[in-house]
Design a protein that fits this description.
The structure is a single chain. The protein has 327 residues and is of the alpha/beta class. It contains eight helices and nine strands. The protein has helices at residues 24-29, 40-46, 55-86, 111-123, 143-149, 163-174, 243-257, 277-300; strands at residues 19-23, 99-105, 131-135, 180-186, 191-200, 205-209, 235-240, 309-313, 319-325. The chain has a seven-stranded mixed β-sheet.
Length: 327
């Protein structure tokens, strides 16, 4: 198994730290024997539309990734204990703060499946930690607000999110607040659900999934730098693939949605339900070229080098290699 450090991931003009690249098989070989299992029914519920994640993927990619995250979590706990001992803090009075994982990547690349799968696997690992998952969709401004701000056609771009509210949510969870709430988003209505909140109570692990969770800190008007959401992550993952492959997956998912979500009478996208394959493919490509593609290239892809781990997918949607940041 070749563990020779490779060059940094810099083809997107980011300055990344050194990574070790492992082939899928080399990464799979690192996994220890474990009783962590996901049954077929649960896996089917976890998979996103058109996502072919299989039991083989669980064994060869996500189980070793879970074990790596567990190592980070365990040693973060040891650092918590050592730090409190050095500061002479009462170990019984100080509750350990949650371990926070960020998951980023393009639309249609499969990051939601990765997030849900890791939630299940981590919850079934040693000591059965309490694992919560939040997506940043709930922190999008409501459609009415986006329209008022002239940002409706840039939904998904960093400026379309209430970044202060998202930061406040993660900081409150990381600070150990007993109960923190987040807005709820509906992919049917394509909007925030009024009056509905997701409640998070004292998780051991919090997974935060979204397009822009690895954004770099922003400079303030006075020249100083603000905080970045990723400042509060203990581990982060970027789900990566060639844009040409992602476009194919995006169009395929759009076509499939005509038979599912778009047929819901409450769906924002009912106008697309009766499109022919050719028409739907053209609409999907148009959306990609005007919204998702530019957002990927301008805002999402440049954050790739900030991740702890990069899952690199091939045209078949399977992870082909794993990049791990050297410590």
């Amino acid at each position: 198994m070749d563990l020779t450090p490779t060059a940094p991931v810099d083809d997107d003009n980011t300055e990344a730290g050194p990574f070790i690249e492992l082939s899928r098989q080399a990464f799979a070989d690192l996994a220890e024997r474990t009783d962590i299992r996901i049954d077929d029914e649960t896996l089917a519920d976890i998979r996103g539309l058109g996502d072919p994640t299989s039991q083989r993927d669980v064994v060869e990619v996500y189980r070793p990734l879970t074990q790596l995250i567990h190592l980070y979590c365990m040693h973060t706990g040891a650092l918590f204990e050592a730090s409190n001992a050095f500061l002479q803090l009462d170990r019984h009075a100080m509750r350990r703060t949650p371990f926070v994982i960020g998951i980023a990547g393009s639309p249609a690349v499969g990051k939601s499946t990765v997030a849900r799968l890791l939630k299940e696997l981590l919850a079934r690992s040693l000591r059965s930690p309490r694992v919560e998952l939040i997506t940043t969709d709930g922190f999008l401004y409501p459609n009415a607000k986006l329209t008022e701000m002239g940002l409706f056609d840039r939904k998904g771009f960093p400026e379309s999110y209430d970044r202060k509210a998202l930061m406040r949510f993660v900081v409150d969870v990381k600070s150990g607040m007993p109960e923190v709430t987040a807005p709820m988003y509906s992919h049917i209505s394509y909007d925030i659900v009024p009056g509905e909140r997701i409640v998070v109570r004292h998780p051991d692990i919090l997974i935060v999934e979204g397009l822009n969770v690895l954004q770099a800190p922003r400079s303030r008007t006075n020249g100083t730098m603000g905080l970045a959401l990723s400042d509060f992550f203990d581990f982060s993952i970027y789900v990566d693939a060639e844009e040409s492959d992602i476009i194919d997956w995006y169009i395929s998912r759009f076509l499939a949605l005509r038979e599912t979500a778009f047929n819901d009478p409450d769906s924002y996208f009912t106008e697309y339900a009766d499109l022919s394959d050719e028409q739907a493919a053209q609409v999907a490509l148009g959306i990609w070229n005007t919204v998702n593609g530019p957002n990927l290239r301008q805002n999402v892809l440049p954050t790739r080098g900030r991740a702890t781990a990069i899952l690199r997918k091939g045209p078949d949607h399977e992870v082909q290699s794993v990049w791990i940041r050297k410590i």
